[in-house]
Amino acid sequence: MNLSNNEMNEMYLDVLKELGNIGTGNAVSALAMMIGRKINMKVPVVKMVNLQEVPEILGGAEIPVVGILLNVEGDIEGFIMFVMSQSSAHLLVNMLLGTTLNGYSEFTDIEKSALMEIGNILAGAYLTALSTLTGFKMIQSVPQLAEDMAGAILSFPAIQFGETGDTALYIETEIFEESNRIVADFFLIPTIESYQKMLKALGVA
Amino acid sequence: MMEIIKVGMADLNVTGYPNALTTLGLGSCVGVCIYDTKTKIIGMIHIMLPYSWGVKNNTNPAKFADTGIPLLIEKMEELGAAKKNMFAKLAGGAQMFEVTRSEFMNIGKRNVEAAKKVLQEQNIPIVAEDTGGNYGRTIIFYSEDGRLEIKTIGKGTKTI
């Protein structure tokens, strides 16, 4: 089958959107079950991004953010990273624990575990979606959390880009619960070998 | 009027008096700052990795300590700086996350070590450093007197 570049691009975007939709579906069920209330999610953006674009996506290298990192191993190897603004992280903790933190409170250990657990659930949701579309098996590690400047947090996966490739799968996730809107940026950073393998399995390379 | 010029990730820049150079949100990366005491020419590089050999994606020399630091010195010399008048200051090299994979272990520390080794080979003395830890840094390097200002979130600001 010969496809034009445009057709290729459209097909590729469709596959990524599908990945975002299935992942979000999984995540909504898991999160709603966890908090025992109805939530809504949407995925406004799914795309492949370059390393250079990432600090801009997050609003600048100096912006304080909360980052959650997980290792991925198995048929696809690499990292998963969630990045949230401090206010989104606080809303998420409030939603989960029924607290009323304002944007400036420091997180306690319990609040940090709650955030890491969300990271776990969302990572699982997107990896299951990827697995559904590709048939690959992947295992995620225990999450880790850091609060700091966006540039500093991102230097970690960026260095992995530096040693491997320079592309990540980016999924912007919006979570709505009552009047709250939480934005979490999801990055899947495969090794260069896994990246090729993933695109091929998704039928876009 | 003083201008503060940005240095991006895996990038370098040089300037002269009265300007300053800055790089934002250094994590595991290392900011190497070189000052020429005679001409007040300054240079800054934001390195991501220690060595370019063995790395597939190595077309950008500013990404690595071994290729980037000599290039930075060269650019400073082009502006009229001389190696014998230079000193260096380092910042960054933090460990933002604990990693289980051994090959990525403490990349921050490896970056700092590589930067020091390359500077030593180039005979440029390191007069001050603020490296390691588990937090990010924004740095500003002033041509006026070679001072390096380091800003953090929750760990205060200092000058070295």
Word description of this protein:
The complex is a heterodimer of chains A (205) and B (160). With 205 residues, chain A is an alpha+beta fold. Chain A has a single domain (5-202), classed as Chemotaxis protein chec. Helix content of chain A is 47%, strand content 30%. Chain A contains six helices and seven strands. Chain A has helices spanning 5-35, 54-57, 86-97, 109-134, 150-163, 192-201, and strands spanning 40-50, 64-74, 78-85, 138-140, 144-149, 167-177, 180-190. In chain A, strands 1, 2, 3, 4, 5, 6 and 7 form a seven-stranded antiparallel beta sheet that branches. The longest helix of chain A has 31 residues, at 5-35. Chain A is globular and about 45 Å long. The model of chain A has no long low-confidence stretch (mean pLDDT 81). By secondary structure, chain B is an alpha+beta fold. Chain B has one domain: 60s Ribosomal Protein L30, Chain: A. Chain B is 18% helix and 33% strand. Chain B has two helices and ten strands, in the order βββββαβαββββ. In chain B, the strands form two sheets. Chain B has a five-stranded mixed beta sheet with strand order 1-3-8-9-10, with no helix packed on it. In chain B, strands 2-5-4-6-7 form a five-stranded mixed beta sheet, with helices on one face. In chain B, a hairpin with a 5-residue loop joins β9 and β10. The longest helix of chain B has 15 residues, at 107-121. Chain B is globular, with a radius of gyration of 15 Å. The mean pLDDT of chain B is 91. The A-B interface holds A 51-52, 55, 60-62, 64, 67, 69, 71, 141, 144, 146-156, 158-166, 192 and B 8-10, 24-29, 48-49, 55-57, 63, 94, 96-101, 104, 107, 134-138, 153. Chain B: Pfam families: CheD. Chain B: It is an enzyme of class 3 (hydrolase). Chain B: InterPro entries: CheD-like_sf, Chemorcpt_Glu_NH3ase_CheD, Cytotoxic_necrot_fac-like_cat. Chain B: This is Probable chemoreceptor glutamine deamidase CheD. Chain B: Belongs to the CheD family. Chain A: It comes from Caldicellulosiruptor bescii.
